[in-house]
């Protein structure tokens, strides 16, 4: 069986992580890269062993040797880049969030279905072994019925240039899409995919018009709730705690979890570890995409397009509470 030949649109830092993850998977290989910055794609392809470098995204999308495309551009370009690739008949794996809002995601879902092409958002945490095992244990009732979850993703303590992407409203910067999507997704996993019944939130809007800190309180059926937050201007432990009726689970670094601790009342705590090389972290989502493509599927059952839209709908609700609209929406 021939390897799936990947093209990458956007040759920045996240694209390097994708290329590293792809390199350890026998079912696929890097073929092409495209960057609108002259010279970037050539350097990227030389570094990772590809064959073709382009300065135009449409040229990559039109290349008949490209089977699938990983979209690694900034958030504001995801919709148009994914649409371009689908229109040229390519399967697509798009870096999270797949689009700025649920309306855009719905349009891409319809286009992919009409063309019978695979499309998935690259939400890597849903495929990491430790998260998959955590999800299985929660379903088995390892700490009884889940009552609540708290998860915080703060990366302050360093200077992010005010002219950089995180501070840019035009590039769909801010805390929510870059960071907040992770605790929101983690809560969705813990709550078994249920939609929250009520959503309350607040945000600190910076001078450039984006949220640099945001906080979300969600209530779920059965009296369950989630307290979540994200920030790139404050520091806090990147961790999650799941409270159950008969114990709790602490997940250090739930963004990149290699272990978690189970504490049941009256028993010694137990730590489960699922290590993997940091540079191979993306291989799990890539493997899922390639398995689906090889099987002729148009979406993943682990992270279906309906789930992508559900999370985007929630983030749309949060932004509406802050009167926050991205440029170009």
From TrEMBL:
Ranges where the GFO/IDH/MocA-like oxidoreductase domain occurs: 133-249
A UniProt-annotated Pfam family: GFO_IDH_MocA_C3
Domain named Gfo/Idh/MocA-like oxidoreductase N-terminal: residues: 4-120
Keyword entries, A-Z: Oxidoreductase
Domain of life, per lineage: Bacteria
Annotated family: Belongs to the Gfo/Idh/MocA family.
Protein's recorded name: Gfo/Idh/MocA family oxidoreductase
